[in-house]
Amino acid sequence: AADRPPQWIRIGAVEDPFQRAAELQRGLLERPAHISPKYFYDAQGCALYSAICELVEYYPTRTETAIFERHRDAIARRLPREVQWVDLGCGDGAKSWPWLTSVQARRWVGVDISPEWLSISFTAGARRFPDVEFTGVATDFTRPLDLHAVLEQRPEWPRVFFYPGSSIGNFTPSQALVLLRSVRAHLGRDGRLLIGVDGVKDKAVLEAAYDDAIGVTAAFNRNVLRVVNRELDADFDPRRYTHRACFDGRHSRIEMQLVAQQAHTVHLGGQRRHFEAGEAIVTEYSYKYTRESFSALLQEAGYSHAQHWSDERGWFHVFVAAP
Ligand code: AVJ
């Protein structure tokens, strides 16, 4: 691939600041107020999320990594070879690199909402794997996924879609179903989906993972108000909000909120919004699945079969699903 320069593709008006501001304003004027978790990830938010992944309480990242390390060969045996490796929400790309060797990848297609992350991962990967073709696609998973044209550039290479870290947990089950179906529509006959999903477990363990003792997750949550201030020309004071994370067993999800400590009025890009003391802004859902509930979702999305791996405690699930 040395003769093929890295490719850069941008789908849609991803970072259209007017669209982002309008979406933020709409959500904050609703009752209850809400902010999509995609707004967490500015430079500071990405750094805080990296710090979260190192916390003793935040088990998902290290549990998934341990499953991947322990079962890498067995998992890879369920995947095709000489593939186009599609990394959904690639971030810094680091989770992909060992797999590129395992499956003799010919091409890496990194997909991320953040052009900054894309160029970081893209540059790191292209240096590390000079014989692999690198393509970066900037898009937002809340819009319909359409990578057909990109993947058709290399019709001879089967596709593996890699969606680790339980990122799927940010979608409601019905939104997740839409995404899983659209991934399936990209797989062709030989393609596979390799996905990591966080498991249902003890409420205290779950809540500690989203409300750590030294307050990193609280800082991550409050940081979204600074993103809002910048993008929407708002005047939230993050110090007036406390972090809350509760596991809602009925919906099988962690719900993260920012709770106003006193009544106050905020300016939101030309509008005003009053918040009562104790009023909450919903900032994130993180859905948790059992082996059975996620297998059922895969089946409902049309996948014909799936293999499963987990850790000793059954805290995290990894699936390879076939179309
Ligand atoms: C990046 C969506 C997988 O839900 O665990 C971590 C984000 N939020 N701590 C998750 C998150 C608070 C994370 N995901």
UniProtKB/TrEMBL annotation:
<keyword id="KW-0808">Transferase</keyword>
<dbReference type="GO" id="GO:0032259">
    <property type="term" value="P:methylation"/>
</dbReference>
<dbReference type="GO" id="GO:0008168">
    <property type="term" value="F:methyltransferase activity"/>
</dbReference>
<keyword id="KW-0489">Methyltransferase</keyword>
<dbReference type="InterPro" id="IPR019257">
    <property type="entry name" value="MeTrfase_dom"/>
</dbReference>
<protein>
    <submittedName>
        <fullName>ABC transporter ATP-binding protein</fullName>
    </submittedName>
</protein>
<keyword id="KW-0547">Nucleotide-binding</keyword>
<dbReference type="InterPro" id="IPR017804">
    <property type="entry name" value="MeTrfase_EgtD-like"/>
</dbReference>
<dbReference type="InterPro" id="IPR051128">
    <property type="entry name" value="EgtD_Methyltrsf_superfamily"/>
</dbReference>
<keyword id="KW-0067">ATP-binding</keyword>
<dbReference type="InterPro" id="IPR029063">
    <property type="entry name" value="SAM-dependent_MTases_sf"/>
</dbReference>
<feature type="domain" description="Histidine-specific methyltransferase SAM-dependent">
    <location>
        <begin position="22"/>
        <end position="321"/>
    </location>
</feature>
<dbReference type="GO" id="GO:0005524">
    <property type="term" value="F:ATP binding"/>
</dbReference>
<dbReference type="Pfam" id="PF10017">
    <property type="entry name" value="Methyltransf_33"/>
</dbReference>
<dbReference type="InterPro" id="IPR035094">
    <property type="entry name" value="EgtD"/>
</dbReference>
